[in-house]
């Protein structure tokens, strides 16, 4: 019996209701993949789907594919599959553009719904692109908006009647800290503000209930826990109550009420479709569509339970084996997402040494080693083995080699 943190790892894996899901993924032999929070691995269904769309749909149907294969409505169909995972009402999600661009769109739309207010409230744990997009929009609007960035724990107290929009990422990409979406959204509404949630590190990782929380807008990535592939289309949510009133800031023809009427004037489509902009990337959407099918029979509560079990095991094992690594973020799992980070002075070379031994996580400046836990393809045995390898590298100082210090362009 392999023991990890006093647990019977084999029994945990034997009783795991999600264990069969690993077969849905192509993960190279010898790899323990702990970076699905940055780029999900390849679902086996994706390559044949892409091959079919290329050869049969594009190859044979040519331009007729837009109708014959209903390519034109792929953003809504794929969005519908995402909706189930994030507790969104039917017809409220589209798969389109990138998360950065979608954030710009929903932020601009939200600010227009609060024309008398000037503050965009966010926190210092937000992913930089969200803050950058808000800065760009603020400067473009040139109407005296302020981006107010507070510490994550100060967000609730900072929501007041000056705030137009509370713009937050639910799970912090570095610490794994998770905001209480329902509480903060309710606070925003009681102050007359709107709430935008970035679900990049939530969608597919844990149960999300946008409808229950009353969120106004949400965005998120298709390439992380949803496994849609590098640069996969992102998603965008607009709550039903705003769908008739939002003005899309990027008024492209695919968000027009009648794109093929070729009117000279813009008229927004009904519903969330108005947040579309240009021609959908059919091949990328097909990949994301196939990847989402892996979730069709998955209970997100089971994903959450296993994620917590995997994270707990890893934290305990790393803390026991590598005292130089300092766990970051809250210990209480109600306030955590599905990734675990440690700060470590030699975090960068340590991560390269781990990757060399097949344990793939990532490094976030200045000193964070980060590991994502994706219950669909990871076992407790994988997690224990990853911690063992980490312990061996630390004990032998195997990270202290010139090759591991060389910085890559993309980390
Ligand atoms: C919270 C968050 N938002 C947005 C992004 C990225 O958005 P994009 O896909 O536009 O690069 C990331 C990661 O890259 C992220 O972690
Ligand atoms: N989007 C990425 C990319 O194009 C290259 C490398 C990493 C990424 C990421 O997604 C980073 C990620 N958002 C993070 O949490 O750090």
TrEMBL record:
Q: Where is the signal peptide?
A: none
Query: Which residues are listed for pyridoxal 5'-phosphate binding in this entry?
Result: 99-100, 127-130, 169, 198, 201, 223, 253, 279
The UniProt entry's GO CC annotations, sorted and at most eight, read: cytoplasm
Q: Has the keyword Iron-sulfur been applied to this entry?
A: no
- What EC identifiers does the entry list? 3.7.1.3
Q: In which pathway does it act?
A: Cofactor biosynthesis; NAD(+) biosynthesis; quinolinate from L-kynurenine: step 2/3; Amino-acid degradation; L-kynurenine degradation; L-alanine and anthranilate from L-kynurenine: step 1/1
Tell me what reaction this enzyme catalyses. 3-hydroxy-L-kynurenine + H2O = 3-hydroxyanthranilate + L-alanine + H(+); L-kynurenine + H2O = anthranilate + L-alanine + H(+)
Its cofactor is: pyridoxal 5'-phosphate
Q: Which residues carry this modification: N6-(pyridoxal phosphate)lysine?
A: 224
Q: Name one GO molecular function term.
A: pyridoxal phosphate binding
Q: How does it assemble?
A: Homodimer.
Q: What is this protein called?
A: Kynureninase
Q: Which organism is it from?
A: Stappia albiluteola
